[in-house]
Amino acid sequence: MEADQFIRRALKSLGADLSSGSLKYISHAKGSQLFKWDSGSVRWFIKYYFDSGGDLQSRAEGDGLEKLMQVGGLNAPALIGQLEENGKGLLVMDFVEISQSGRSRSMETFGRQLAGMHKNAKAGYFGHEMDNYIGTLDQFNGKMGEWAEFYFYRRLLPQLEMAASGGLLSEELTQKPEQWIHIIHEIYPRERPSLLHGDLWSGNLIADASGTPFVIDPAVYFGHREMDLAMTHLFGGFSSEFYRAYEEEYPLSPGFESRMELSQLYYLLVHVNLFGSSYVPATKGIIQKYFEG
Question: What is the CA radius of gyration of the chain?
């Protein structure tokens, strides 16, 4: 009931005719719910962040969607409006009629689009103007000049500390920053920071029936582009057409496969802290491979 009332206030503020439209629940994720508003002439996605701090999450997601479209040149559901109230947040976005066959046809196009963003949307620092979220967890984006330091202090260390405080990983892992930074520095190729989606698993790419790709649920920052590519290999993966098109537009440095798991470590640590011990063995395996071998 609370969600329904909040959504209807947002719709009214955008001029929607509440007497002629319907609101349909679609799905939920940790801390949020997704709805569809359909009035015949207008169809919108409505994403409602109901946990405390939902206002900050919705603001960060709106910023990320606009950054990917305006700076990165990707397609995303256009942002229609936002509402923040009592620590909760809501986004109203253009509705995309999701097509699985369209998604299959979108792979080559999206590979070229992502490569183009990574190649052309560059910055002189690693980070972002504002902190945001990875899932429901804080993602810290304070700007730094070197990837190794940024990856350790802004990505790995906060997740390692959280996992240690929850008894899921050893506190000893947080006590040798110089060693971790040295190894990270030696492994990654030197590249200027690229604008990243930041959470590019297979579920965060959708497409319409024409095969036009759209990205959703971003966690944007300027970082090493191999982070986005490594994430595409987790939890379902993308098609060979996607990787072929990406490589044609902006080839990765040799040896990507040998260091891919190091980039995936951040995302697995996030899953440890969001979902618990089932992700610990894979996480420990990567830590042992790169830092304890």
Answer: 20
Burial 87-106 (b: 16+ CB within 10 A, else e): ebbbbbbebbeebeebbebb
| Domains annotated on the chain, with CATH | 2-94 (3.30.200.20), 100-291 (3.90.1200.10)
List the catalytic residue out of 4, 38, 55, 199: 199
3-class DSSP state for residue 235? Answer: coil
Whether 199 is catalytic is: yes
pTM above 0.90, yes or no: yes
80-134 residue pLDDT tens: 998 888 888 999 999 999 999 999 999 999 999 999 999 999 999 999 999 999 9
48 strand-pairing partners: 33, 90
Give the integer Cα–Cα distance in Å for 207 and 76.
Answer: 10
In the block, tokens 């993308």 appear at 238
